[in-house]
Amino acid sequence: MPKSLTSRKRLKGRTGSSTRDSRLFVIATEGSETEPLYFNCFKEKFTNGNRKIKIAILGAGGKQRSSPKQILGRIDTYIQKNDIKKDDEFWLVLDAESRGGNDLDSIATEAKRKKYRLAISNPSFEIWLLCHRQRPPGGPVEQRHLEDSLSKALGKSYEKGKITCDDYMNAVDKAIAIAKKSDLCPDAAWPKSTGTHVYRVIESIKAFINATTASI
User: Fold this and answer.
1) What are the strands of the beta sheet with 23-29, ordered from one edge?
2) How far is Cα 91 from Cα 147, in angstroms, rounded to an integer?
């Protein structure tokens, strides 16, 4: 059994003994640049000054992309080192690109066992970015064609690791609506065809922000 599941610190947090008066959202990403940049933009725009929410973004180190095992391990380590509450949320942001169904099944099973949530994009995170501008292609799409579509939608060349907050943050609600409408199997652990479940983590955070704002 993974150490994270028996960690005394995690068990203490899960019993509600934490004194932290906020909900924690931990987002572990496969990429080291694009995804962390996007979520930092989101964090700055939507949670600035809100003491009821805390977002921790765990990106990959260096320029390399993480394996699913490494992403799971980063969350495990974070839990061991931090005060955790029962209603905190832990998200894995992954790409389906270059992974077979058996691999994704294994990831989904392990995440479910650890009570981590999935936000998988097929083929990649760029599908989520494209949703801020337009509905993604209905059929399979190669990564290079996806990036070309994103460049056309932005009106400028898209480059990984060079997210501009203004290009996306004013269209987050649009992206949620488009991604949900394009999600043909919302009960599935990941999109079986072109699509993204990143809207799930964004929607969860925004719902909590709205609820805490309304209660003030």
Assistant:
1) 53-58, 23-29, 89-95, 117-122, 195-196
2) 25
- pLDDT tens-digit readout, 139-168: 889 999 999 999 999 999 999 889 999 999
Q: How far is 150 from 175, CA to CA, in rounded Å?
A: 13
- Distance, in Å, from the CA atom of 9 to the CA atom of 210, rounded to the nearest integer, reads 30
| Among the listed residues 158, 167, 156, 163, the one whose alpha carbon sits nearest the alpha carbon of residue 132 | 167
Span of 31-40, 53-62, 128-137, 173-182 with lowest mean pLDDT: 53-62
Q: Determine contact, residues 163/37, Cβ cutoff 8 Å.
A: yes
Answer yes or no: are the C-beta atoms of 33 and 161 closer than 8 Å.
yes
Whole-angstrom distance, CA of residue 148 vs CA of residue 154: 10
Q: How far apart, in Å, are the Cα atoms of 122 and each of 15, 69, 194?
A: 36, 19, 5
- Concatenate the DSSP letters of all residues of 139-192 into one string: S---HHHHHHHHHHHHTS---TT---GGGTGGGHHHHHHHHHHH-S-TTSSS-S
Q: Give per-residue pLDDT as tens, 16-63.
A: 456 678 999 999 998 889 999 999 999 999 988 788 999 999 987 766
